[in-house]
């Protein structure tokens, strides 16, 4: 009798864990689809890059060493 109760307890516990994990995975997939749609829409409008990619140089702090030009991975700084 104890064996049946123990097996039933573990089966129900496993089933509940499986249900929770399944719900979590489905929710994550749904959220991922929403994000993918937002990214596709942003790419359509040409705004898919974060603003922080483009450097902002403070002319008051610049020492005119040219380090920003060599450090820029986009090679998009022409000089100040």
Features:
elongated, mainly alpha, 80 residues, 0% strand, 2 helices
Instruction: List how many beta strands DSSP finds.
Output: 0
Going by helix content, strand content and strand pairing, the class is mainly alpha
Helices and strands, in order, run as HH
What profile does the largest beta sheet have? Answer: none
Distance separating the two termini: 85 Å
Q: What spatial form do the alpha-carbon principal axes imply? A: elongated
What would you report as the Rg, rounded to the nearest angstrom? 27 Å
Rounded mean pLDDT is 84
Unreliable residue runs: none
Strand content of the residues, in percent? under 5%
Helix content: 55-70%
**Total domain units:** 2
Give the number of helices.
2
In short:
With 80 residues, this protein is mainly α. Helix content is 61%, strand content 0%.
Please describe what this structure looks like.
The chain has 80 residues and is an all-alpha fold. The chain has 2 domains: 1-48; 50-80, no CATH class. Helix content is 61%, strand content 0%. The protein has helices spanning 2-45, 67-71. It is elongated, with a radius of gyration of 27 Å. It starts with a helix and ends in a 9-residue tail after the last helix. 0% of the residues are buried. The mean pLDDT is 84.
Topology:
Blueprint: H1 2-45, H2 67-71
């Amino acid at each position: 009798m104890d064996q049946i109760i123990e097996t039933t307890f573990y089966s129900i516990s496993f089933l509940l864990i499986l249900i929770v994990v399944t719900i979590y995975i489905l929710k994550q997939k749904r959220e991922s689809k929403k994000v993918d749609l937002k990214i596709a829409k942003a790419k359509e409008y040409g705004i898919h890059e974060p603003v922080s990619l483009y450097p902002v140089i403070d002319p008051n702090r610049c020492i005119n060493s040219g380090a920003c030009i060599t450090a820029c991975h986009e090679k998009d700084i022409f000089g100040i």
